[in-house]
Amino acid sequence: MALYLPALFSLLGAVIGASLTGWFAIQRFRSERWWDRKYQAYSDVLEALNSIRADLEVSFEAHLTRRDVPKEQASALLAAYQDGIKSIEKQRAIGGLVLGDTVVAQLREFERTMQKASGGEHYFDYLDGSLAAVNECIATVISLGRDDLKASNKRNWRKS
Questions:
Q1: How far is residue 124's CA from residue 67's CA, in Å, rounded to a whole number?
Q2: What is d(CA 141, CA 102) in angstroms, rounded to the nearest whole number?
Q3: What is the pTM of this model?
Q4: In terms of DSSP H, where are the helices of the chain?
Q5: CB contact set of 80 (below 8 Å; sequence gap of 6+)
Q6: Is 38:98 a contact under the CB 8 Å cutoff?
Q7: Has residue 76 got a pLDDT over 90?
Q8: pLDDT tens-digit profile of 130-141?
Q9: CATH architecture of structural domain 12-159
Q10: Are 81 and 52 in contact (CB under 8 A)?
Q11: Residues in Cβ contact with 106 at an 8 Å cutoff, skipping those fewer than 6 apart
Q12: Domain ranges of the chain
């Protein structure tokens, strides 16, 4: 019996060590996947906002210089703008799960500001107000995203 005791302790130590290693690896994998989801959500929001901004900038420049945007370019920009608006609405609807309440509130404020800008008397006022709203939203989402992703990344390293 005394001969088997060291082997039993070695086996028990190996099982405990392997179990802990496996548990830590699974926890790290889960937290990294969550970080990846957050990163993708922030990327989707910023991509949508940049699509909206591209259309507004071209329209703004065309309005200032009193020239027409070629129809093909205008239709492509309009399609990207509409896709961007739909993506923002989607991210706002599901964003609370991944993005957090602050980002969702910023997206709501962005939508309100865009609606308010569209109620103006002049097209130039709409473009100016909308462009200011999208630029402010982009800056805020980038700032919130950096803070959120840094905090998530630091937590991931501490946990594992």
A1: 14
A2: 9
A3: 0.76
A4: 4-65, 71-98, 101-118, 123-159
A5: 51, 52, 54, 55
A6: yes
A7: yes
A8: 999 999 999 999
A9: Up-down Bundle (1.20)
A10: yes
A11: 137, 140, 141, 144
A12: 12-159
